[in-house]
Design brief:
This is G5 domain-containing protein. The chain contains 4 helices and 21 strands. The strands form 5 sheets. It has a 6-stranded mixed barrel. Strands 2-1-4-3 form a 4-stranded mixed β-sheet, with helices on one face. Strands 6-5-8-7 form a 4-stranded mixed β-sheet, with helices on one face. It is an alpha+beta fold.
Length: 326
Amino acid sequence: MTKYLTMQKRHMTLLLTLLLVLLITVSGFAWNVKTVTIEADGQTQTIKTHLNSASGILRDAGISMGAKDAVLTSTQTLQDGTVITVLRAFPVNVTVNGKTSTVMTVQHTARGLADELGYKAPNYVPSGDEGEVLKAGSSISIAHVTSRSVKETERQIDVQEVRQRDDTMHIGETQVVQEGTPGVEQVREEVLYENGKEIKRRIIQKTPLKEMVPTIIKEGGRDSIETSRGNMRYKEVLTMEASAYLPGDGDGRGITATGMVARRGVVAVDPDVIPLGTRLYIPGYGVAIAADTGGAIVGNRIDLLMEDYGEAMNFGRRSVEVYILQ
């Protein structure tokens, strides 16, 4: 009897141990579930997984990988929130020693592709821009550097243009306040050759010899003007030659080219310069509307309708600023 109880106790202990192991395994499996995002072929999907390898996750998601495709992960180890990005290889034409072949790559610069193919610096260099962004169908040439030299030359530093906003000037108005002059610098370059033929120059050092003086231009920033009707915003200011006319001028009917009744505040313009219907402000005259034309009103000419003959005669002909209101 005692022997039976002992055996039963052992069986019970073993069963409890197995249950505990199973519980720990299941708990660990559930605890390891994480949410990851997959970006591939222009699509994004978020999945839950317990796998710990990007290849396994992609396989479960039904995403196949080519021999030259690559995978990037946003974290060093896969964890909750990791983003897995699939980089698809694309064809690039590569010329080395006069022979051209097409290779598949995920490299996006000529230098990166050269390194990937084993043509590493300093013995090999892409003939063009090493940082050139590659895409499907791009072509690059990789040169074998057989000799080098160092040359020094003087070069002109082109004048830079600096623009400064000035709110005391009208919007659209500019003024050169400083004329620029070119500078001079000494440039030290490394010249690379392939079998005696120059293939590339690299700047090693630049030493200024004469400082470049920039051209400074002030740009008008003021876009509003105070009028008898309050502050008004404008988008352009034109300097125009102005004259005056009366309601009865022209055909004598007192009707403008747009059909409006001729009255103060109506002005005649060249529609190629100021479109009919444009609201204007002329200092000394007031707010107006471009609603009439005239045979002599061509280019930067404007005719202001006055109320009587005496006012028109006193106005005469003068230069005025015409504000094109917003």
